[in-house]
Every structure is written in structure tokens, then in C-alpha cells.
# Entry
Amino acid sequence: MRSAPARIVLTPEHVEIRLEPAGLGRRFGAVVIDGLLILGILALSQKVFLLFFGAGIGKALQATASFLVIWGYHVFNEVRFQGRTPGKRMLGLRVVDGRGLPLTVQQSFVRNVVRVLDFLPLLYGLGGFVALWDRDHRRLGDLVADTLVVREDVPWSFVRLPFPPLDGELGGPAALRRLRHRLSLEEREFLVALSLRADRLDDRARFDLMAEVGGHYREKLGLQVPHLSDENLVRALASAAVKRE
# Structure
């Protein structure tokens, strides 16, 4: 099966970001994992409702729960966990906006409503056919919502940064814990992604972007580290972001 070529998008700062569309095999694997989890949730909820409410009310509650789980599972996980359901997380995938931006609630809702058509006539037959011929392996839901499923082979929280750890330059363990608590999950992921992609950027764009990001976090976090350049400050924060507590 042919692999999808990388999609290159240009950020407002005129920095090129390379997105690697996910292959159909890995996407199908994520669908299977999520499907099994949904079935497990429904089976467990059915036992609980029947045990505590009996056959009459229990079946009514189960019908409501089934509707909410089937229609809400993907939307909830994609919005709450930055485009990753448990299946996608396990296989290193993420759904993003077609320009590489974070997925919106509206986009997640649309791509998952259209999932009904993608599933036809059986086991994502139509969606798989469309994805097979699309340049970026997008199913109908992705085309309508302008989304893209991309590869993230190594989750950010376990990534090994390709440069010496610099978090020690920011202080001791207590200081690092305080810094991590002041950074949101999205900010940690951004700092790691920027550090990993820095070597791919044009020299001028890299200098300007690092200066902007480094200056922002010097001010936000009140960092007094004049011995660190803006780029090394960003890399130090990225090192701190991935270090386990």
C-alpha cells in the first residue's frame, strides 16, 4: 500500500510544519481498539443498570447510555485529549485541523457524524475506499470537517529529546515542579514539538520563532536566566516538560 506523502503547512510566522498522514493499517487498528473499548463500556453499563434498577428501568437507562457512548465517545476523547482517542493514543495517532492546528469541537462533531456514512456498507467500506484514493488517506468525515489524522510515533510525554537535557539550568527539582505546574498540557506539547522540529526550520525563521517564544516564557514565568539563549531556554523548558515527577 502506498504511503501518503507529508503535508507541508505554513504557520502565520511563515514557519513550515511537516505533517505525516497516518496509514490506513494503523488507523484501522485504532478503530478496532476504540470499538472494543466501546463494547466493553456498554457491556459493563448494562450489567450495572440491570443489577441496580432491574429489567424495566435498566433497559431504558442502557438505551440512553448506549446512545451517549456511541455518539459521544469519539467527540469527547478527541476534544478532551487533543485529538486522541485511547486507540489513537496507543498507536501514536492524532486528529488535527487540516492546517495542523488543534481540532475544534465543531470539527470533531462533524467528522464523527459523517462516520455513519463512512461505515457503510460494512466495516468502514466507503470510508476506507475514499481514504485509499485520497492523497492524505482522509475518509469522508475528514474531508467534510477539514481534518487530518497524523502520525505521532512517540508520545510527547515519553519522547527522548535529541539534545542534552537543559532543565538543570532552570533550578533544582522544586523549581522545576513549580515551572511544570505553571505550564498547561498544550504548552508542554508545543515546547516539545518546537524543540523537535527546530532543526528542520530555516535559520532565520528558527531564530525569530525561538526569540518570540523564549521572550514570552521569560516574561510569563519570571525566569532570570540571562546565560541561556532564547533557543536554549525553549529546549530547557521542553526538557522539564517531559521529565517525570
Q: What stands out?
A: The first strand starts at residue 7 and ends at 10. Residues 1 and 24 are 9 Å apart (CA to CA).
